[in-house]
């Protein structure tokens, strides 16, 4: 699993890690049942604290995207959660869009208006 973080991104690191994993699940790089590398290995590869990675993994577990199994590690949740995975990916992309809109001086309501104007 190849994850990268943008050190210029203002979002907290755990949100960036969670977003990268959401994207990997959403685009099919990680399939239901796939095991993720241990948090310690991910943290080392990203150059961040293992607790930061664990926080991201717990957030994704709470969203229903990941399953924690004692002795088996962390894996992508089964096919029943495809709808959850799709929604989580859309939420992540909406957050990124809102952040981008803020950089251009638009607020949440402005973005909603723009979306409502789309065909």
Please give a handful of descriptors for the protein shown.
single chain; 119 residues; mainly alpha; Arc Repressor Mutant, subunit A; two-stranded antiparallel ribbon
Portion in strands: 5-15%
The helix content is 55-70%
As residue ranges, the low-confidence spans are none
- CATH hierarchy, class of one domain: Mainly Alpha
- Separation, N- and C-terminal Cα atoms: 37 Å
CATH evolutionary superfamily of one domain: Winged helix-like DNA-binding domain superfamily/Winged helix DNA-binding domain
Order of helices and strands: HHHEEHH
Arrangement of strands in the largest sheet: 1-2
CATH topology of one domain: Arc Repressor Mutant, subunit A
Whole-number mean pLDDT: 86
The count of strands amounts to 2
Short description:
With 119 residues, this protein is mainly α. It has helices spanning 13-26, 39-46, 50-62, 82-103, 108-117, and strands spanning 66-69, 73-76. It has a domain at 13-92: Arc Repressor Mutant, subunit A, CATH 1.10.10.10.
């Amino acid at each position: 699993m190849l994850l990268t973080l943008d050190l210029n991104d203002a979002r907290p690191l755990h949100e960036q890690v969670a977003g990268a994993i959401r994207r990997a699940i959403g685009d099919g790089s990680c399939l239901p049942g796939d095991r993720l590398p241990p948090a310690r290995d991910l943290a080392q590869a990203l150059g961040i604290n293992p607790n930061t990675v664990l926080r991201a993994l717990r957030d994704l577990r709470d969203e229903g995207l990941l399953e924690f199994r004692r002795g088996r590690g962390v894996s992508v949740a089964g096919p029943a959660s495809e709808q959850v995975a799709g929604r989580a990916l859309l939420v992540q992309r909406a957050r990124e869009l809102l952040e981008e809109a803020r950089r251009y001086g638009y607020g949440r309501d402005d973005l909603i208006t723009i979306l409502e104007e789309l065909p």
